[in-house]
Amino acid sequence: MSYTITCPICGKRDLYEFRFGNEERGPAPDHEGLTPRSYSEAVQMHKAVGGPQKEWWYHRDGCGVWFTIWRDTLTGRETDESGEIS
Amino acid sequence: MLPKNYIDIFCFIVLENPLVLICILPSTKEEDSPMKLERLWGASPFRSSYDAVMIGGGIHGLATAYFLAKEHNMRNVAVIERKYVGFGGSGRNTAIVRANQRSQGNVRLYDEGLKLWATLIRDLDFNMMFYNCGNLNTFHSEGALGAARLAVSTAQLSGVKSELLDRKQCKELIPVLNIEDNIKYPILGGMYHPPGGIVRHDAVAWGLAKGAARYGVHIHQNTEVTGIDVENGKIAGIRTDRGTIKSPRVLICAGGWGALLAQMAGIELPLHPLTIQAMVTQPLKPVLHHVISSGAYHVYANQTLKGEIATGAHMDPWPNYTTNTTPHYFKHQAEALVELLPFLRGVKFMRHWAGIADMTPDMAPILHGNDPIEGLYLDVGWGYFGFKSGPITGKYMAQYIADAKRPEILKPFSLRRFEEFRHTGETAGAFSYGPWN
């Protein structure tokens, strides 16, 4: 089988054209009051959701845009926000 | 009239002389039957409480249960498996064993693991087909030569046999290797590790299950864990689709699914679950007598005792809990293999499959317990190294669980190393190993 996701500029393309840019974890933490532990939680820990998650992608072998999509990690298929296959 | 064929001859004799029939038919008494097959382990009653529960019926969980029962006299132990014994990474890896990692803490554990196979095979009375044919890791750049020098130094300091070969020596070791300059990444040399090799992975899972069951361990297959109960910072037990189990000690050793189970206990881990694909060719005459691997080509291959060339690819570069295979890697493997081993041109792939590797940022496992939840132990984050280290980790995790104290050899693998930014140094570059590397 082959996987695809939808680039906002190029449309639906083979997933191997893209670089995964991590799950969406919100904005980077404030430098004020930052501890090694909270920094580690921001940069190293993962929710590693089993199911639909919002994640970042970069169209490496295409237009070079960064964007977010929803994807189900239990099926590998792109979904919408509710987890339905879009 | 005389009978025309053998069936007629048989019927003729039987009809003529019914006494013959008694001699021909096998005895109906079970103990006399030469065809009687014994199960390696039987079904066990599902108890509502155990002294310790392993979540995951793979090599790590079975080995931990086996050593808990054998060496620490804890016999009231259960192994809970969602599918069947060896369904996950235990039966999906490419069966390669070696101890030539980069950091000393890792090499120490893997080296003990390598030495354990022989005693384990004897103790379990189960042939795991350990074939210590040696591993050759080729390098194709000056940078990789530097990394190989570090790994060889670490191995030699730790008393593990490992040496650098130039490319002519690589060719002498593996005559079918292509050392010419006519390929994408010409071979500069290699790191040769004689004590490594391959072990039949299914046999390891089955042998350990048989051994554990012999000591009274209950193996519950087709049992899915649906929750982990924690009370006042202590583990209380687990919930499954067959009922609740109370237990003061729970080990998460579910391979690629470890992060999902840790979430049930409210623990976030630095893990990326990545699908990793493997495949075998049609069987060939014996031709490749060593494990060969190449970082630049992202390929590793060995010839199994059945003659197939088993080869593994790099991980899919995004997280997934699926075991799907993709044409991308058939093409990738074929391209890489025919450059390194040109005799494989035209040979067909016969089967393909995938497993899940749970990668940590520093490519070393997380072996951790009693923190932040008393009685909850983690044996996760093995990535694609979980097979070679399975039995030895089980031995030390059993000691960890029995004594509630981390054995010295497991000290480098604490979960807290990540927030202290004291990574193991297993990766050659930055510590942020992930799908993008």
Shape of chain A: globular
Under the CATH scheme, which architecture of chain A would be assigned?
A: 2-Layer Sandwich
Structural Rg of chain A: 15 Å
CATH class of chain A: Alpha Beta
Percentage of residues in helical conformation of chain A: under 10%
**Neighbour order of strands in the largest sheet of chain A:** 3-4-5-6
The CATH architecture of one domain in chain B can be given as: 3-Layer(bba) Sandwich
- Give me the CATH superfamily of chain A: Folate-binding superfamily
Decide which structural class fits the backbone of chain B.
Answer: alpha/beta
How many separate domains of chain A? Answer: 1
Any overview of this molecule?
Chain A is mainly β. Chain A has a single domain (1-25, 48-84), classed as Folate-binding superfamily (Folate-binding fold, 2-Layer Sandwich), CATH 3.30.2270.10. Chain A is 9% helix and 34% strand. In chain A, the strands form two sheets. Chain A has a four-stranded antiparallel sheet with strand order 3-4-5-6, with no helix packed on it. Chain A has a two-stranded antiparallel sheet with strand order 1-2. The radius of gyration of chain A is 15 Å and the shape is globular. Chain A starts with a strand and ends in a 7-residue tail after the last strand. The mean pLDDT of chain A is 93. With 437 residues, chain B is of the alpha/beta class. Chain B has a domain at 52-134 and 195-267 and 366-417: FAD/NAD(P)-binding domain. Chain B has helices at 6-16, 19-24, 59-71, 104-124, 142-157, 167-173, 201-214, 258-264, 327-340, 390-403, and strands at residues 52-55, 77-80, 96-97, 135-139, 163-166, 189-193, 197-198, 218-220, 225-231, 234-240, 243-246, 250-252, 272-281, 291-294, 299-303, 309-319, 349-359, 366-369, 376-380. In chain B, a hairpin with a 4-residue loop joins strand 14 and strand 15. The interface between A and B is medium-sized, with 26 and 30 residues.
